Fold these 3 entries.
Entry 1:
Amino acid sequence: MSVTDRSRLALVFRRVLMLLLLGLAGGLAYAVLSLPDQAVGLSDRVRANMETSGVSNPVTAVLLNFRGYDTLLEMAVLLVALLGVWSLGSAAVYRRSNPEPVLLSLVGVLVPMLLLMAGYLLWVGADAPGGAFQAGSVLAAAGILMLLACKRPPVQLLGWSLRLVLVLGLGAFIAVGVSLLSASGMFLQYPPGLAGALILFIEAAATLSIGVTLAALFLGGRLDPDA
């Protein structure tokens, strides 16, 4: 195939892709404009089942109990996104240049505060706005600050230990679901007496995975222990 033919093929591909994207955008716009002005929603059903959810925050109840399947898939999508970035090649774990003293001082002050805030958001998520994704995002911010300040993680944490943390959240979700499936025949159907403890266990594991995954995505490539 000549250069001219490849250029024409690339142009056709871009035009087809543009048409598909325009069709998708048009479909989404139609769907949004077709929504009723006053939707009934499921808020009444959520309030009616809060006593069996294991938590008192309706958002956490929906995300980790009533709509647990969706959150499980969100964890899987986040992990797949990281694997896609890693497939692009390796990235340096830390910058070669020396960080500014102001940045180092800022990291020394902010990172402990961010870790404390992440723990608080995780714990308070059962009763107030918070939870694994918020706590994981704050944890990722602490990790990114340390990467910017050339804080090199130990080499032994960049191998299987890192991969274990990355799959910890999704693995905990699946493990709880399979255990409940074996015990009661229902996947992710928490017993009312254990719902709160199981949700906290899943969210704690998910917080670590989300934080490390987002920090790893910031690097834009696969982590290389020899870098």
Entry 2:
Amino acid sequence: MTADPAPAIQVQGLIKAFGHQVALRGVDLSVDNGEFLTLFGPNGAGKTTLIRVVASLARPTSGTVQVQGEDLSKVATSVRAHIGLISHNPLLYGDLTPDENLGFFARMYDLPDPGSRIDTVLEQVGLTARRRDPVRTFSRGMVQRLAIARAILHDPVIMLLDEPYTGLDLQAADMLRSVLQELAASNRTVILTTHNLEQGLEMCDRAAILNRGKLAWQGPRAGLDLVAMKEIYRDATRRPPDVKRGT
């Protein structure tokens, strides 16, 4: 008998403290390969901290994180090659052009045909015409577009998106939605954090709510409409975080 494959992401007993401030309070979360999970929660719930820990940008105070069956504390460097991250920090160099920024990351990931791949992602995010302009001259929305191009450049199997719609104009938001639809259809594992219930429900397979550093609710997207999700969200963020419900 063949053993079931390990989840793409497995978080167990995750605690993250910053001095006396505890951001995550024993989070248990499993995300299957190819699953799209949307993580909702109010400001200060711990969503960004959780994304940073899974992306190996922050170390947990205690608990474990496994990515594709590997303990993140032991294989963080190699795991990063399989993760694409979009966060509040675009991780770009303002004095460099999009071509130069993406060329740098292409060398980091040792891409076999970087020029062709850079052409593809710049076209995908609508920045081909600005590819030789310094990033410091870009609007917030354009910077976020380039951050998306950076995140998908190496064709990662896991995407972590922390409030990716922040600062985007309508055109850029539509472009991001198109990218997310492609990700959802390509059997990648995706974790998306957002405050926007409608955007977050649009493509996910499962939704979860983080409240005060603990997982307050999780359940499948199937059969869940926006009205029901609003009620669940109000209930989950109103209750003490030690009370968890879900299906």
Entry 3:
Amino acid sequence: MRTALILLVAIALSACALHGPLPGTSAAGTAVPAGPQPPTVAPEHPATPPGRPAQMGPAASALLAQAHAQANAGEYVAAGATLERALRIEPDTPLLWVELGRVQLAQGNAAQADAMGRKALALASGDGEAQAAAWTLIAGSLRARGNTAEAVEAERRAAALTAH
């Protein structure tokens, strides 16, 4: 058990050592404007082929678990940063975009949540579960902005995907 825990921590820490600029700086080391922005890194993994759900590797899975614990504790900024690290590892995993969108929605950033839901939807081709999660996130962001009719349509799309 202890060895497994040490291995899990080592994997999570190795994810932190990936290349890329630190948050708040550009690749050249200069400051960039503050505020929530989706990470911009070149994909290292090909997109999931249509018809197959995305599978996360152990490092991204460990970071996702860490982000869930942080969000459950109300530490949304930390959870968002953890999810952004996971997205640097696996930028084409729709579930990570949905989770980051949920954190944004919990912080009151409905427009950011909507954008992340739509990014997840674009990446979730052939993955009905991920598409349903993305539509549910989009519906929540629309409701938060007072767009009830559009939210109902997004919820209908999510329900249609989960009915199969």
